[in-house]
Automatic annotation (TrEMBL):
One of its GO terms (cellular component) is Cul2-RING ubiquitin ligase complex. This is Zinc finger SWIM domain-containing protein 4. The keyword Membrane does not apply. Keywords: Metal-binding, Zinc, Zinc-finger. InterPro entries: Znf_SWIM (IPR007527), ZSWIM4-8_C (IPR048370). GO terms for molecular function: zinc ion binding. The keyword Calcium does not apply. It comes from the Eukaryota. Residues 1-28 are annotated as: Disordered. It comes from Camelus dromedarius. Residues 129-166 form the SWIM-type domain.
Amino acid sequence: MDPPAAKRSRGCPAGLEERDAGAGAVRGRGRPEALLDLSAKRVAESWAFEQPVQKRIVFWSFPRSEREICMYSSLGYQPPEGEHDARVPFTRGLHLLQSGAVDRVLQVGFHLSGNIRELGGPGEPERLYHVSISFDRCKITSVSCGCDNRDLFYCAHVVALSLYRIRHARQVELRLPISETLSQMNRDQLQKFVQYLISAHHTEVLPTAQRLADEILLLGSEINLVHGAPDPTAGAGIEDANCWHLDEEQIQEQVKQLLSNGGYYGASQQLRSMFCKVREMLRMRDSNGARMLILMTEQFLQDPRLALWRQQGAGMTDKCRQLWDELGALWVCVVLSPHCKPEERKSWLQLLGKWDKLDVCPLEEGNYSFDGPNLQPTATLNPGPEEEEEVEEEVVAAGSHHTVFGRALQAGSLHWSDTHLQRILASDSYGPSLTGNVGSDKPTFDPQGRPLWLGEPFPTACARVDTLRAHGYPRQALRLASAIVNTLRLQRQHQLESYKQQKKELLQKGSTCITNMEGWVGHPLDPIGCLCKALLEACRLEEETLALYPDSGPEKRKVAYQHVPVPGSPGESYLAMALEVALLGLGQQRVLPEGLYAQDKVVRNEEQLLALLEEVELDERLVQVLRKQAGQLLEGGPFSGFGEVLFRESVPMHTCARYLFTALLPHDPDLAYRLALRAMRLPVLETAFPAGEPHGNPLDSIVSNRFPRWFILGHLETRQCELASAMLTAAKGDPKWLHTVLGSIQQNIHSPALLFKLAQDACKTATPASAPPDTTLLGIALELGLQVMRMTLNTMTWRRREMVRWLVSCATEIGPQALMNIMQNWYSLFTPVEAATIVAVTGTTHATLLRLQLDAPRREELWACARTLALQCAMKDPQNCALPALTLCEKNHAAFEAAYQIVLDAAAGGLGHAHLFTVARYMEHRGLPLRAYKLATLALAQLSIAFNQDSHPAVNDVLWACSLSHSLGRHELSAIVPLIIRSIHCAPMLSDILRRWTLSAPGLGPLGARRAAKPLGADRAPLCQLLDAAVAAYITTSHSRLTHISPRHYGDFIEFLGKARETFLLAPDGHLQFAQFLENLKQTYKGKKKLMLLVRERFG
């Protein structure tokens, strides 16, 4: 397979240069390279030693690409705000190089060393770091720096030295491996060399030197049995493996630390960037990609939270689950590598098999199988009606559960040796004229002669595309992606033909069985996303200058795409193909998967795909693709989520339809509306609720108790509402479409809360501040509001009051007739309380009347309608609506009298004393004391206050009624006394009333006429009856309290007797009566000696 085309990576920082070591010294002068250099460059990539060109091999063996240095010195995650890439090791190393901090650079064989001088902080001295780098066959194999860097990748000092060697290769002093130099010395020179070396570093090397000398002098020692001696500067042998230096311990520690901080957003981002680093290594054909992924996986499996979640039976967090998904997908790319050695793949599969068997290994979410339907050029509908129930059971049945590594293990059985596949990948011009059907029974080309890829599930085929991209084969990935798309097109064509043959039967049945058990959007392998990204990547316009973090600027740059022609397909572009594939996946009719996370992933994946499409600026070619795809979606039958009949648990198309509606509206409004209206359906609710009927809990759109599998139902209903809102807004000014959209809303949306939001949005859209209102849209807003009122009439919630007020304001915007209509038809819309206290009142406020700008006759008509409404409500619910009705009818005598009569009639029918007292006080406030007195007597007739109810809620009302009757005169007072005696048995309360009535003459209050000159006596009628009742109440209450009295209440009882004596003394013979009462108590309760002693001490 061809290596990938040289291309600067998007993650490379500005200033990073793709250059060969020493290139500036040769090519800059326009001279061709010497043959010796050319051969040495080539040999240096594969062999560490070749005698004729040894020095040139040593020269060319150092890495030549700054991109590779960058890969090992930058992680790639977004740093904190303000830091940008200043703290990234590569950027720091570049600054050190440019500031002249590198000196004393020496290359001895395959070993490079140098000093880096770095300025210290304020008040700190300059710091000197010694850096050593070993390399082999254009890869750095080990690094050492005096800064003791403890990070994932190379420090800035290693970067600075490496970049110096790449950019200034000719200036670096170069020596052959030290063993070559030593071989040129005689005995005296060697002895001098060793002694000088020991003398220069005697404190460090003297013990080692002596030990080696002793072993060499000892015949038969191990060191004498080995020919030659090791040379750290000589490079490795051809059979030795070589790979870039990777600090495994630091990777493990970093992943462990990030997982322990898993609850933080930054930790997840850094782990994702490490996954991106693995992909970057795979793309560079760097074996460390797999090594790094193994290290990360081991740490993931050692996460202590896995055992805890399993023990508790709880699911892992969404962030953690997403990381595991990405880990599993990466392993598929690694195992499916098109160029790995068999022994490498075998070792990976052994590891995966071991991990797969661990108890803590997470299972893949959702009920996706391994072996879905294969890509094929023909397709038929699922079984007929008699087998539909069986198919439905299969859909809801739990799928086979496998771990996140299951797909990678399955990928181990796939290969790249298929002849047809090899030819697809090898050429853009592969066609039937060259090969026929390659010895196969199945067709391998479409009618246009373009290659097809058949015989394996669509997600698996797309995983091949992702693998090719991941391993640096972009051209081959494009070729395979094109073959897959051609296969999908042919398959869809046959699907449509198959549907047309059975269309009449399916439409008569009105429902269908599902044709796709597993959806492609939300699938663990993300097949649609893989295809789209591969196709879009080929069309992306690259910018001249790239930063280390492209998105770290103040504003994210808009991605630009261009049409790139597809070889062998005249007039077609990869950009149009990407749009077609995305719509094909998004519009697929598919079953919602099982589990909250899997369902949430469907939504998230759908939004990610649409975000990709929204980056693409639509031109005429793409609009034509949109039109064609939209038409096919509408005619797709059971294969399309926009088809005429749907399976009950199909994933709704609301989000996709909103994108299509917005994109198509400027170009083909009719098609846009047809598509969006078809997508308004939510079949799972339609089977449970007939059109127009609400949920069991109308204002709660998440009915998880009734639909336990549909965890995301609330989200789906919100998306449905957003689609409807977009259509209403777009249809403003077009009555035809407005009424069509309204019908669809009323038929398909079952949540009152969302209907109310739609009504509010429509009203807001219809009444812009700087333009006249759209009366049609206002009427639709009102109609939606009325539907909400009807749906929620029997379900009282705190939002009802808000809804009623809004409805009145919306009707006011339309005009007085609309307002009067809702008043006249209140019974089916509002409760009596809502109608009387909100509708009638709000509809007749000063602000409303000003807004309506009515003349006098029309204003009176509105008032009359409101009064009629209030009276009807008072008759329906006098307890809560009588007072509002009286208030509203104050200015109309006849209506006021009717409302008053309703209250009197209700009193006979059981209207409570509290409400009667409230209305009575209102009458007094209105200056109608006799009516107030009448209502007060009716309230007293219903009241009963026991002997121990000193704090009864009606105490204040009773005292007010007594005050009112006293102010009216002796006659009214005399009439109320029997009611007081019959209703009140509380002695303190009776004595309080008696005392109040004796303070002044009756009829002297502000409401009564003067009828008597002096206060009434307690011993004369009509107060003598009340006095007797009070005395009797004290006697009865005393005996009652003494029956169960405890010593701690003795003091309270003595105080009670003191108040009783005050009441007794109001009678002429009260002193004698009280004495007899006390004597009776002493005789009756003589056993309570302590209490009786207290009585004697107080009263004698």
